[in-house]
Amino acid sequence: MKSVRSLNTNVRTGVGDFHVQTEFYQSSGKVITLLFQGGQTVLRMEDEPDEKSIDEEIRRVHESIVRRLSLLKISVSVGRIKELLTLKTGLRNVIFIEEIVRRGPEELDDFGVLVASGAPVPAGIVVFPEASEDEIEKGFRLLKEKSGASRFIAKTGKKEGRVTFFNISSFEKLRKAVLQIVKDMGDIAIVSEMIDARSSGFLYSSDPLTGDNTVIIESSWGICGYIKGNKLNLDKYRVDKETFEFWRIKKEIVRKYTELSIDSETGNITEFEISDDRALMASLSDEEVLVLAKLALSIEKNFSRTIKLDFVISKDGRPFFTDISVVGLKEKRELLRKLSVLEEAPFYPTGVRILAEVTDVDIARTISFLPCDGIYFNISGVIGEMFEKVLLETAEAAFPKPVVVSVRNKEEINAVREARNKGFTNVWVATDGVLIVHDVPSFIKEETPFITGSVFKGAYGKLFTDEGSILSPNLSLVRELVRSGFDFIVVHPDEIVYLKKVVASEERRLMLKMARQFLKLDERI
């Protein structure tokens, strides 16, 4: 191998162009790397070489620094560049998150690249399963010294089935949480500063379904971004990545009822009611939306694919990214039913009506925000006066849209009659054929020609429901329902917008097909 005692490379970053020079200094016996910008030395780094292979050590150090520097896409201070390139815990089994790109583990590669890109992230460490309690304590003290924070989060490295411990304020609590992750679960633990968020949420760097050059952002008040699966109403924003203009931000601001926040007295995570003056206020300012969109665009350059970023906005308005994932085919299928997009309703009419399936009381109380054509009331486990009360609330919120109630017994039928007697004539029933209701518009269950789902027929047409299931992955079935002349299709609330587009698209295709056939017939005549 050719002997090298000096390597030089020019690197282009989000901060500007740098020149990296790595040499072995005979006088000190160390490998020295100098970072130049504009002809000035901005950073000096020292490494102890392996005496048996100095050339290999020069190459290893140089290539490592060049690679990490090339990932820097966001403008940061020289001090932050120094942290990204040199910060070390000095421990074998506990590392700073800035060391992930250099020392692994592989399952955190995407998060390591996020950190290396210069994105604002909460200070953190990674604890390996082999870590001793002494290393865990030393790592925690280093993190506390670096961040100055008083509360922390510990979570598993694996995203699937992720376990998270919140609001850790003492080493004893941290020790128990980390040991549970690394010893009992055999996973790596990520410990990070917990940001007391004013707002939080997630974003997609591009529209993952259509490929549109648009950043999609959803957010709410409080720390909902930390709590996965938390059912809160989210504000929605779309930003054109080519212009980044205030007046081009597309917004859908919804009423927000509750927020999760840290109680100033107890320090616990508590659910608070949102005051009326904030309920309809945007959880992000236009400036914050644009900052998040621009940061996402910079980070995306390291992945060359659409990415999803979880974020929080601190009380003083600073953004932090808490997690990242690359959107692949699997994620896109999942998004077909989960992603809420801000598109206008189709401009052409659709005969098929989409009913949102209501399966619990919480969903029933938010139906006024659902862009559906009616409700399929399928609540089980609620009986007596409670059933009647929820049904009346639903009928009132939905009126004049139909509310089709799946009835199982005479008590539920009586609740339907009571609702209609109070003037809610939009309430109908769907029965299995055993319970016959003569005085209420009814759908009666019939034998289904499909592999899945149930078919009902009544005076108002045909209704299809695949109770509790998601229809988005089975678009061929949805199109077949349209072609078969169904009047009502019951869907999960999260997939209303998407399936309305699918239905409208299929009906438009059928209309064009009929038009072509008519033109051909006209030509023959």
Count of distinct structural domains: 4
What is the CATH topology of the largest domain?
TIM Barrel
- Spans of at least 5 consecutive residues whose pLDDT stays below 50 are 337-350, 521-525
Terminal Cα span: 85 Å
Cofactor: Mg(2+)
Organism: Desulfurobacterium indicum
Family: Belongs to the PEP-utilizing enzyme family.
Keywords: ATP-binding, Kinase, Magnesium, Metal-binding, Nucleotide-binding, Transferase
What does this structure look like?
GO terms for molecular function: ATP binding; metal ion binding; pyruvate, water dikinase activity. InterPro entries: PEP_synth, PPDK_AMP/ATP-bd. The protein has 525 residues and is α+β, with helices and mostly antiparallel strands. It folds into 4 domains: 1-70, no CATH class; 74-194, ATP-grasp fold, A domain (Dna Ligase, domain 1); 199-338, ATP-grasp fold, B domain (D-amino Acid Aminotransferase, Chain A, domain 1); 353-511, Alpha-Beta Barrel (TIM Barrel), CATH 3.20.20. Helix content is 31%, strand content 27%. The strands form 5 sheets. The protein has an 8-stranded mixed barrel. A hairpin with a 7-residue loop joins strand 22 and strand 23 (454-458). The chain is elongated and about 100 Å long.
List the helices and strands and how they pair.
Layout lengths: L5 E7 L4 E9 L4 E8 L2 E8 L6 H17 L7 H9 L7 E3 L3 H4 L5 H8 L7 E4 L5 H15 L4 E5 L7 E5 L2 H14 L4 E5 L3 E8 L9 E8 L13 E6 L9 E3 L5 E5 L6 E5 L2 H4 L6 H15 L6 E8 L4 E8 L2 H10 L14 E6 L2 H4 L9 E4 L6 H15 L4 E4 L3 H12 L5 E5 L10 E5 L7 E5 L2 E5 L9 H9 L4 E4 L4 H29 L1
Parallel strand pairs: 18-19, 18-25, 19-20, 20-21, 21-22, 24-25
Antiparallel strand pairs: 1-2, 2-3, 3-4, 5-6, 6-9, 7-8, 7-9, 10-11, 10-16, 11-12, 12-13, 14-15, 16-17, 22-23, 23-24
Helix pairs in contact: 5-6, 11-12, 13-14
